[in-house]
Design goal:
It is a single chain. The protein has 258 residues and is of the alpha+beta class. The chain has one domain: 4-Layer Sandwich (Chorismate synthase, AroC fold). Helices cover 30% and strands 13% of the residues. Strands 3-6-2-1-9 form a five-stranded antiparallel beta sheet. A two-stranded antiparallel sheet has the order 4-5. Strands 7-8 form a two-stranded antiparallel ribbon. Strand 1 and strand 2 form a beta hairpin. Helix 1 crosses helix 6. The relative contact order is 0.15.
Length: 258
């Protein structure tokens, strides 16, 4: 069983992941992982942080001469923005005039502050930031490399967003998964239907996050917590699993809800 553990703060010096359970003798290179890290930084709605960071992974254990050793693999990504936050985020001493006392809706700020007894919610939000997903992508890229050895490929795309659906003609017929994936890669919202993709950015602007819930720590087991891992993404409002769930939607707009 593969298992990964991530560590690091959004504006700390680096992010780290340890992947346990990789077999020995698997060909791995940083370029395999960097390709998915680059994909993560593209698409609609990316913030100013993406203009600062240019993620490149460092493999610091578990791989030698391009082959896995069977021991845990350690992955690291440097935070370039750390240079602007050294005084605030230093481990030995930090200035205290940038404290955060108001929890943000839809984040783990309130839950984490209560659970761990922090009055400065920066101690929580730095960990529960979307920046942490960079290490999830890196760990997932390593898992994809293992699946590739068994002839398994992983593809994904958006079929519906805020009531805007990809047409059945674009998704069905003789179009294969790889072709749909290539179309999605060319779309800012990752929709293989070009017509639907042009109109589906507005739900992003309309979406509003509600009450703060969450858990700032990360220990995810691939066997049973896939749903939990997806729901922890800051933009995730809900999820359904199964064929029928593909064409259902539940939209939060403002204070209204079901």
């Amino acid at each position: 069983m593969l298992r990964y553990l991530t560590a690091g703060e959004s504006h700390g010096p680096e992010l780290t992941a340890i992947v346990e359970g990789m077999p020995s003798g698997l060909k791995v290179s940083p370029a395999d992982i960097d390709a998915d890290l680059k994909r993560r930084q593209a698409g609609y709605g990316r913030g100013g942080r993406m203009k600062i960071e240019s993620d490149r992974v460092e493999i610091t254990s578990g791989v030698r001469n391009g082959l896995t050793l069977g021991s845990p693999v350690t992955l690291k990504i440097r935070n370039r923005d750390w240079e602007n936050w050294k005084e605030i985020m230093a481990a030995d001493s930090a200035i205290s005039d940038r404290t955060v006392t108001r929890p943000r809706p839809g984040h783990a700020d309130l839950t984490g502050g209560l659970k761990y007894g922090h009055s400065d919610l920066r101690n929580i939000l730095e960990r529960s930031s979307a920046r942490e997903t960079a290490m999830r992508v890196a760990s997932g890229a390593l898992a994809k490399r293992l699946l590739h050895e068994f002839g398994i490929s992983v593809f994904s795309w958006v079929v519906e967003l805020g009531g805007v659906k990809a047409g059945s003609a674009a998704l069905g017929g003789s179009t294969g998964a790889e072709a749909l994936f290539r179309r999605a890669e060319a779309s800012a919202v990752r929709c293989p239907d070009e017509k639907a993709g042009r109109g589906s950015d507005s739900p992003y602007r309309l979406a509003r996050r509600k009450e703060g819930r969450g858990q700032p720590r990360r220990l995810v087991r691939g066997r049973c917590d896939r749903g939990s891992a997806r729901a922890r993404k800051p933009r995730a409002l809900g999820q359904e699993i199964g064929r029928e769930a593909l064409f259902r939607t539940y939209v939060h707009t403002g204070h209204k809800g079901r």
